[in-house]
Amino acid sequence: MNTNQKLNSLGLEVPSVLLPKTEHLQKWAVIACDQFTQDRDYWEKVKAAVDGAPSTLNLIFPEAFLSDKGSAKRITDIHSTMKRYLKEGIFAEPLQGFIYIERDTPYQKKRRGLVAAVDLEQYDWLPDARPLIRCTEGTVAERLPPRMDIRRGAPLELPHVLLLIDDDANSLLSALGEKVINTAPTYSTPLLPDSGSVTGWFLDAENDMAFISEKLDELYRRSTGRYCAPGENGLPFLFAVGDGNHSLAAAKGIWEEYKAAHTGDALSAPPCRYALVEIENIYDPAIQFEPIHRLVFDIGFDETISLLSPLPDFFCRPVDNLRDLAEAVGSCQDGENRFGVVSQGHYALVQTSATGIATACLQPLLDGYAGDSPQLIDYIHDEEEVFRLAEGAGRKAVGILLPPVQKSGLFQTVGRLGPLPRKSFSMGHSCEKRFYLESRELFC
Fold it and tell me: Which pLDDT value is given to residue 381?
């Protein structure tokens, strides 16, 4: 088995990566479309900063605007801009290989990653599925159609999906960093607005590819016994989706559509069978798991407290201010869960004896409230944003702060039990999310 075959057996494809020719990479790169969903001002500021220059802002659909009228035309315009960028020579010649990345953020330094393509045949988001590439959180099927509309027929894809590997020895990405330390990067740029910087090195040498496949194969081989209780027969499990599960699920949906419409050689290796992702190590010290807080609309403070009251050993006490509330939630101990409730100058700490991931006991109560209107719940990454929205003078809303998330044991939990409740954690703060920079042709 040669190196490419080994990589393919591990669910990877060596992609043909497109990078822009522009020297203004800071204007080219913008943050993942599923960030700042309640902050249109953020996206307007990005638009002003781009100032008409070639940018991935023109190639994505920020989810803050998904519910606006005219979404079909916006998608058509996105596809047209993709075609125009390809025709006008915005991109350099494609690079066949992987890209090793180092990302600095306002909170962490040198988060390491590897841009590669994954085989969607090796991924499934259904709760009972146990493929090589697994989702870590529940997928909401109703959220997939608009994301599939964006990808369907798109000439390009731009990745914000982050896949995790369980490399406690840090044997892969740190070693790649040592390999490139004395070589010139392929690109390097600060990121707008105040989001740190990113540097990438192109990798296509046979020895680099062999090293990557060898280290991933080691993780694959140990996975069968690592994520199972004694006596259980586990299935191999190499990658866990850390960010962008709905985007990856949408890509899977388009691939399934393609398979249904084609036969024979057309199914061997079309571009839409693969998805561009960044692979990161869950044990990278620069990766911090953050809770994803809840914003619940059209409900009052007292109603929310009542909604949470069925929690086991429910206890609620008022808190004087936001700082004390955040500290109380952040000091959650083993054997309990804590939530902060915020609305229009009212603050309360809710405690429960329910253990495990906080969303497991919280989300069913919120889903019961929302019923057939899931839009009544939004998912916010930063506590300051929760405070701003819950204290604002606009639509009535209550913010619910979640406690810190421990990343140890994530692979074991997903391997044995399947996906966690949706939006259970976030990898870092909003500004630390992946920025679009690389792309790949899909249907041209």
Answer: 85
